[in-house]
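Sanity check

After download, print the first record. It should look like this:
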Amino acid sequence: MRSNIGDIVDAMLKPDMAWVGNACLSLYHQILESDFRPECILGIAYGGLVPAAMLSALLRKPLVVVRAQSYDGTKHQAELIFDVGSYTFPKVPTLVVDDIADSGKTLTFMQALFNSYDIDVRYATLHRKAQSTVIPDWSACLVDGWVKYPWEQN
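Expected structure tokens:
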């Protein structure tokens, strides 16, 4: 895993949309430099929707959305809520995209979900925290603090 966009940040981070766009370009180039060729981009709503849509456009692959949330609207972790609806995962190489690998809870759940399928799945996030139990295949920045994305309220 490489981090091309930024170094460790330990204060509250407020990336703007220009930074998000540059981070997605960095992730795009990292993916192209690898041997992985996704056929499907799976965005984790809500935080992963913007980077997933950007990567979907850059990679020219279809976007699928699932909902997973592990925060209760504050800085406190809540029970993980996950909803795939009636969606059936295609058996094609899939890139799962989220905004941040914080505790690793969401990505751990995704790994467990995909273990029951015979699918090559890789993970990309804008940010990763050192304490995350899952290290994404690609992330743009290692951070040690609270991140407030432009699409979040408050």
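If your output differs, re-run the checksum step. Summary of this record's structure: The radius of gyration is 14 Å.
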